[in-house]
Amino acid sequence: MNWCTLEQTLREIIHQGTIQTFFQPIVDLHKQKVLGHEALTRGPSDSPLFSAGVLFETAERAGLQESLEHLCRRQSAQRFKALGVDGLLFINVSPQALEAPTFSLEKLDKLLAFVEIDPRQVVLELSERYPASDISETLKALGVLKSRGFRIAIDDLGTGYSGLKLWSEVKPDYVKIDRHFVRDIDSDLVKREFVASVVQLANGMGCNLIAEGVETEAEVKTVQDLGISLCQGFYFGKPKPVPVISNLFKFAKTKSDPISLGKVGSLAACVQPISSNTSLKEVSERFSSAGFVSSIPVVEERRPVGMISKWSLLELFSLPFGRALHENKPVKQYMAHNPIVVAWDEDLSEVSRLLTDEEDLYIRQHFIIERDGLYHGLGSTRDVLKRITDMKIRSARYANPLTLLPGNVPINEKLQELETSGRDYTLAYFDIDHFKPLNDVLGYARGDQVIQLLANILRTHVPLDHSFIGHVGGDDFVVIFEDSVSVIEVCETVQRCYAEDVLAYYPETNVRQGYISAHDRSGRQQRFPLSALSVGVVYQDCLGVAASQDIAALAAQAKKAAKQSQNKLATLSMSGFLKDLPDKATAETQANELAV
After folding, report:
1. What are phi and psi of 452, to 5 degrees?
2. Cβ burial 97-109 (10 Å sphere, 16+ → b, else e)
3. Are 183 and 215 in contact (CB under 8 A)?
4. Which of 123, 73, 125 is nearest to 94 (CA)?
5. Where would I find the beta strands (DSSP E) of 239-317?
6. Rounded to an integer, what distance in angstroms lies between the CA atom of residue 195 and that of residue 186?
7. Regarding beta strands 341-343 and 366-371, do their DSSP bridges make them parallel or antiparallel, or are they unpaired?
8. What is the pTM of this model?
9. pLDDT tens digits, residue range 283-320?
């Protein structure tokens, strides 16, 4: 097709508005959620301008780039709003579109008002592939857009003309690393070193990195290990008119159970605080009279405002005339105004992360624990690390080696603890249906991946502050819910996520057919449905305190009922079960699934 025909075709496409908008997901591996979607434009399917490259190259040559971009922005916003897509909307914008007289904030405001999209939902991607003819105009326009709530991203880092200069001047919210540096990064040392240096730079500039073009599991794991949690690429979803997410839960970092690590409030030391007007002389006397105290919190109206350490005070007094010059001055002039303050019910694992991220040596040694915003006590880094080390050693001793979740010993200990305390709880027994044919046909490695998938889904959707997740063994898991958790809602969410995500582990042929062919236990070839999740829920209502073996027997009974139900979910009450408890031999046989 000659140039004149292409130009005429493009004019018709713009006039009729027949472009297509596809969306590709951008995922957050750390938070296990979708950050947003990038809007990508294609021409009509039956047109020579279907390819985005040909479409925009033709527009540039024909002087129609402004008209095409405006149409793309309008249709992207309309489709995004109509689909109710999650997260942020990433829209590509050329630098030329932000230069006068093309740029008009009034036009953009009218467009977003028309489709009812908040500017804070929109990320404008500025491609580094095309140089800005007037960088000062571009920066001025971006400043106005950011003041209105728009977020800014630099696309294709490492491929363009302006490089890091553009990054430093624009100060974007997101920077996308071009797919060239992500492809085969797991086996290319030079690419790994380049991306590692970009990660360091991004951390220093307070910018979020997005790895583009991730297509393999090895690439995802490598960029995640380098410190990048935001990814975009075919591995998580191809550009489609209605986006579909794949493989997200496979890369959840192992998350420690907060019940096993405990809360930081248990480590609070009762150190009497001081007011901000206390003199350094009085502070020095406090340190001398209480030899074990090396940090003192500073509070006003019972609220923490700072902290002073013994070592910083000694440094000050060691200066020439230090004591004479400073001892009568108030501590507020010398205290650390940014101490680490954590809530009393914060997980020890999270407190440990805060402490190790902090660069100030004096602040890192101690931290303030508050409760309802009021001073509760003083915490020690040494105590936190010691507690975590002790508990992790114990946890590792009894953890399931595949998922690192607590195994049978911690599960039974938890049940015994609840029974002794008399607290109400609910136990949910999760079992993977049709796991054996999947394991037999697709291999043990794939079977292990599916088990790890379920473990990660449980970690993501079970409220860990009020629950305990255990891995009985094989494809069986238990969750012990406490307090007022919406148990059925959580179980249904886990079932739904598992049913969606497990499809990625089957060949496309099996997914289309809806079954897998394998030998049954008698050796006959059978068609088995694709894997699903059965959940048996047991309510312990304390009408009678049962032994943990009775709980185990009932869990096995609930699981069996779930497998036979239409929605793969069944509930049983302990009070009803106690009336018709199976004979001891039967109960003990059923309980073996949870017993040590």
Report:
1. -65, -35
2. bbbeebbeeeebe
3. yes
4. 125
5. 295-300, 303-309
6. 11
7. parallel
8. 0.46
9. 999 888 876 788 999 999 989 999 998 888 988 999 88
